[in-house]
Each structure stands twice: as structure tokens, then as C-alpha cells.
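Milestone M4 deliverable, item 7.
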Amino acid sequence: MPFRLLISLLCALLPLHHGAPGPDGTAPDPAHYRERVKAMFYHAYDSYLENAFPYDELRPLTCDGHDTWGSFSLTLIDALDTLLILGNVSEFQRVVEVLQDNVDFDIDVNASVFETNIRVVGGLLSAHLLSKKAGVEVEAGWPCSGPLLRMAEEAARKLLPAFQTPTGMPYGTVNLLHGVNPGETPVTCTAGIGTFIVEFATLSSLTGDPVFEDVARVALTRLWESRSDIGLVGNHIDVLTGKWVAQDAGIGAGVDSYFEYLVKGAILLQDKQLMAMFLEYNKAIRNYTHFDDWYLWVQMYKGTVSMPVFQSLEAYWPGLQIKDLRDHKLDNRMESFFLAETVKYLYLLFDPNNFIHNNGSTFDSVLTPYGECILGAGGYIFNTEAHPIDPAALHCCQRLKEEQWEVEDLMREFYSLKQNRSKSHRKTVSSGPWEPPAGPITPASPENHDQVREKKSTKQRSPLLSCPSQPFTSKLALLGQVFLDSS
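Output delivered:
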């Protein structure tokens, strides 16, 4: 799902028209294209509000609305963080109020577990973490509490019954009121099993309830254990028996976001095991599905080509609203991801100064029940619906001992480089102000701290997963803490 429709829209956006930069060698004006993308967004957004709200999605040909993935006013949830990225603070604030007053998850509706997670849970979590930046008056304890966070938690809890299977892999559909229907099919696509760790781990970190991250990890582990002897996974599996129903292995529809979330989960959680899983898959994918410039579908046990096709989610090149390429018949549906994902990515291409691109040079300091925390320092992780999650937020609502020790190691390294320089004030935002002692640094810790640290030191240390261009202060910010250098 990442960058879906982006290339086709970019090609549609760039042709010259009156007032656009000419072919005389002058550089294109990003502001011009930003305004074109904004116009595209508001044409679709306003049409949804006028013709489709409170239904999930707009039907653009008949100018009405219909419920698709549940009954959540889905397009409004999906578009919320895009409004802020486009700079519309007032509409963001208005929509937050509308969602709180109108959205109810305690309804007798069969909903897609996968789509509800990436669109609803992901959209609400992202909007929750961006609320302060959008000027919303947040409650005491934010980001560890808040109405949008409670909505995200409520939605996610409605999905938990789907994970109650012998394998721990979830059903594809769940009734939000009654749980999994007795006659529900146990066959789920691979992406529908492996695309939860980003949202669910974030939710567990913010709420303190480990159940969400736990079920997401179990599902990932079961998929990993179900791979073939040559290291590939199929397209659909029976979540009750663990038997593969569709044995086509590839990187496209039905599988794509599973691999995406192994990488993003690894970065978000600093989890080497998730990254190791992806790297192993990457070897098998290159060995068996890669042919010249194409990635085809192969039989997961034999590696022989089963479907010699290159689909939209491999190419990231589907056409907007085109249903039948033979007659160019338009599809009477505007998917919510158009406002959540397509327009957002397109806009950010032409807005290099957007807060999303922050390199860590600016940030917000927030006081939580667990101490002071740094947010908004850059390095956002986008879920597969393009909802940005601030990794630092995962460390605002908890204090893990191992994490404290890692920060202490960084503190030692940082101040050892400063010993020969003039003394200046330093501050670490954890449980309170911190001044570097004049002598050697001895970390405050439990009585058995030295024994644990000695045990840890015997293991080979390797750097935390991070973005290659990330500055030192951003790396600390990703741990929910930062050092301020006033020199």
C-alpha cells in the first residue's frame, strides 16, 4: 500500500499549464505544485463532506456516500493528519470534535481487521500524537492519555477477538459488537496477519497495556515459523490450522505490508530480530522471485514461477479510479486512502520545510506522569496508510531499565568528549533536572544493576537501528530523551 497512486498522480500533476514554470531551464516552483496538490485535496475532501459524510467514503459518480470498511466516517479519520500537514489547523481541531461526538465502535458491523487497524487505529494514533502541534488543548498526562488515544484503544480492543485462534494469527473479519462470527472464514492473507506491529506496539506503549503488542508479535512469529524450507511465505493461510491455502509467494497484494512492517517495526522498536527476519526474507525473495527488473510470483515451496505478472502494488502504478482499461470506465468510489496517503505523500514532495521533514534541530518538551519527554524531533515512521507515528512517543509513557542504561552509556560517551572543554549547563529530560558530576559518572541504579550490566557487557554490542542521516540529538530523541548543549 505505500506510495499507492503516487507515481500516476505525479505524472498527471507535472504537465505544464498557464502560469506554471516553462521549459526554459528555470527551476520548478515548489509552491506552485503545493497549491495544485492542495486544490486536489480540498476538491475531494469538500465533496466528501458535502455529499457523503457521515458515511465511510464518497461515491463520486452518484454524489452520495456509502459504508465500506465499517461505519466510522472513515474518510474523515483517514484525512485528519493530512489536514495538519497541509497546514489547516482550524479544520483539524473541528474534525477532532466531530469524531469524538459522532464515531461509535460499539456497533453490530462486520469490519476488516486489517483495514480498521491501518486506517482507523493508525489514523487516530497519529492525530492523537499531532494534537498538540495542531493547537488542540490536550489533557494532563498527554501523550499518555487523551480522547483520540482512547478512541484508538477502543477500536483496537474490538479487533482483539480476531486474534483468539489456535495459531495466534487473526481472522480477516470481526464483528465489532459480537466478535468473530461462527461462520467466518479462517483464511486470511499474509498482510492481514503481519501488519499490526506499528499501531499495536504504539498503542501498548502509550496505554501501558501490553496485550496489543503481544498479539501482534505472536502473529508475526507464527508467520515466520510457517515459511517454507526455501524461506518464502504464501499469499493466504488458514489461521486455525496454519496450512497455506494460496501458495503463491511474492511482494505484491496480500503480502506487501507484511515485509514493510518488519522493517518499520524494527526501526520503531529498535528490534534486531524483526530486521533479521526481513533480511532473511530479502535473500529468498531475490533468489526466487526476482527476474531482471521484475518481481514475479512463485510457488512458495519450489520457487517455480506460478504467476508471471507484475501487479500494481509491486509497481506502485495503479491508475486513479480506472476500473477497466479497455473502456476507461470510472469506478464509483473514492477510497479514503486517497486523502490519507496519496495526496499526503504527493504534497510532501513539494514541501521540504514541512514539520514532517524535521531533522531534529527543533522539538517539543512535554511533561508526562513518567517525567519530561521530547516529541516532534523528526524521524517519523509512516504506517502503511501514511499515518505518521513519532517514535519518541513510545518512550514517553514508560521507563524501561535497559533503556535507561543505554541512555547512560550515551551520556558517558557524550560527556567524555566534553571533558577538556569549558563547563556548561547540561540537561537531560527524564524524571527531573540532571547535572553532570565533576568526577566520574556513576549511574543511579538498583542494587543488582552492576551484575546485570556486567552480564550485558559480555554480549556483542551493535548500534541501534536508526535512519542513516539521523543526527546525534535525534537518536537521543528517539529514546524519548535529549541533551541540550548551551555552549
